[in-house]
Each structure stands twice: as structure tokens, then as C-alpha cells.
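Quick start: read one record
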Amino acid sequence: MERGGPARPAARGPGRPPLTPAPLPALPAPPALPALLPAVFTTAFPAALLAALAAVLLTAGCGPSGHTGSPASSLPPPPPPPPSATAPQDVCARIVAHWAREVLDGSAYGDYQSMGLSNGQYEILRDAVAAARPVRERQGAAAAHDVIARHVREACAERHRTGGPDEGAWR
């Protein structure tokens, strides 16, 4: 039983010749340049054209910078530079002073790694807390926090005086 519809060509099988595509039509040859062009158009004309084009662009306000229209003096000023990153000694002082106040007040305890400090930063913290304890007993917590801030700021500045810690990643 056959289905209805248009008949399809038979597939190439044994004994059938290979299908060959129809030949493409030939393209016409490109036109030849007329022999009547004077020699001035083939040698001097491109240089003269480029010189004229450059003169037009310069008088129109298109300089080498690529800006068009207005002269460079009327351009808006460049945007201000982005704010610089926080200096390493400031980051050190902020982090160590925070944890030193927490340790002095008794609200934090842990090793230097749980606080996110290096071994060298933890040494600064311990020295600052040791210096602040007697001040807290005599003058109160506010004076002790001032001692911590001053001690930590000076120690972190010394630590980063040459650009960073000098004895490995956790020093």
C-alpha cells in the first residue's frame, strides 16, 4: 500500500550514476581601465587627495586626538581619580585595635587565627592589651582604649614601614 503525495526521486544506490550538479554560469570579466586616463591621475592624484582631505579635517576641528567640533580648551576636565585603597598600616591598626579592645573588655577570646590576625599582628595585640590593663585599673576603660589605639597605630606603622611584614606570610 502506497501513501499519497508527490513522488520523491530515488536515492542513489548500486547501479545508479552519481548525481552531478548543474554547471554555474560564467561571470563577466571586470571592465578594463580606460587607456585615456592621464598619468597625473595615477601618480599625483592620490597624494593631492590625501593632502586636501587632511586640510579639511584639520580646519573642521578633527585633530589627532579624534575629538570633533570644539577645540580642546573647551573640553570638560577629566574626572577625578578614584579614591586610593586603604594603606596596609591603617588596615593593621584598625583590625588589631578592634580585637585588642575586645580582649581587654573580656568579650572576646580566641587564638590569632580565629580573629583573622597574623602572628605578628597578634603580638602587637598582646603588647597593647598588656600596656592598657594597668591604665584601665587607674583611669578607666576610655583611657585604656586610647592607650591601645596609640600603641597599635605606632606598632603597625613600624611593622609596615618598609612596605610589609618581612618574615613570611603570617609574620
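The two ends are 90 Å apart (CA to CA).
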